[in-house]
């Protein structure tokens, strides 16, 4: 094996070392998992970091998968069954309610769009697959967290939570209290907590293991979504998410099994 091919193989093995249980790792842990010297791992990390494929957490010095993988992953997602199974449901929501409809998955503390259908209305919420959303103050993020494992919730809420607008909740206790309501209703809401002027509803989609596979959402201008309509949209998204959940649990080889 040539040296260049060996380096490439090691770089790929390093990227594949990250999973749900190992979302952030230091040089020593990576070296142990890969069976390589720390100096070698450090060189590979630096190279991948320059390309945006790996990022270092400035708070603890550990590494996690980088943003540059998102557009590549988005291209691959075009062929995944999850989007195919959800397509008619997303289009039905769009046609009936005329608001932007999207679907996102969780990765390393962030929710990433994998599908976006934009509203036909002149004033609308526009986004692209691959864009990341904060998890603590968006309807999509809260819909995920409300049904996530307690340890995962603790880890996320123990970090410093950014306040994006005057409506953003950054008190972990208040956020946890909201989770109770989300679990009761089956969907989450966000009224100008992430961006002023934007309101959204979102509901989780579960896989066979009972974990959140994805989150379906409908965001729109706040002036078009008063409290009464928020309930209507929330129940509609929740119904669509339940249908997609049933489809996922009814097929073999459920995709994105580890995305939650």
Task: Please supply descriptive tags for the structure shown above.
9 helices, two-stranded antiparallel ribbon, Arc Repressor Mutant, subunit A, Beta-Lactamase, alpha+beta, single chain, six-stranded antiparallel beta sheet, 43% helix, 8 strands, 260 residues, 2 domains, disordered C terminus
Task: Break the fold down into its secondary structure elements and pairings.
Blueprint: H1 3-16, H2 27-34, H3 38-50, E1 54-56, E2 63-65, H4 69-77, H5 81-97, E3 101-107, E4 110-117, E5 132-133, H6 139-145, H7 150-157, H8 172-185, E6 188-191, E7 198-206, E8 212-221, H9 227-249
Antiparallel strand pairs: 1-2, 3-4, 3-8, 4-5, 6-7, 7-8
């Amino acid at each position: 094996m040539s040296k260049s091919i060996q380096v490439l193989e090691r770089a790929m093995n390093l990227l594949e070392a990250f999973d749900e249980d190992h979302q952030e790792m230091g040089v020593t842990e990576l070296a142990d998992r890969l069976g390589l010297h720390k100096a070698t791992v450090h060189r590979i990390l630096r190279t991948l970091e320059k390309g945006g494929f790996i990022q270092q957490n400035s708070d603890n010095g550990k590494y996690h998968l980088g943003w540059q993988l998102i557009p590549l992953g988005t291209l691959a997602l075009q062929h995944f069954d999850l989007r195919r199974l959800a397509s008619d449901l997303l289009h039905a929501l769009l046609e009936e309610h005329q608001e932007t409809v999207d679907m996102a998955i969780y990765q390393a503390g962030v929710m990433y769009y994998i599908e976006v259908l934009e509203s036909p209305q002149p004033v609308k919420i526009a986004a692209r697959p691959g864009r990341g959303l904060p998890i603590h103050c968006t309807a999509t993020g809260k819909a995920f967290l409300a049904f996530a494992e307690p340890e995962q919730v603790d880890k996320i809420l123990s970090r410093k939570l950014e306040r994006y607008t005057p409506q953003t909740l950054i008190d972990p206790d208040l956020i946890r209290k909201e989770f109770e309501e989300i679990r009761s209703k089956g969907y989450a809401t966000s009224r100008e907590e992430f961006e002023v002027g934007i309101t959204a509803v979102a509901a989780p989609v579960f896989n066979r293991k009972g974990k959140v596979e994805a989150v379906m959402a409908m965001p729109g201008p706040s002036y078009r979504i008063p409290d009464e309509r928020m309930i209507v949209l929330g129940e509609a998204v929740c119904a669509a998410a339940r249908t997609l959940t049933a489809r996922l649990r009814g097929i073999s080889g459920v995709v994105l099994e580890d995305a939650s």
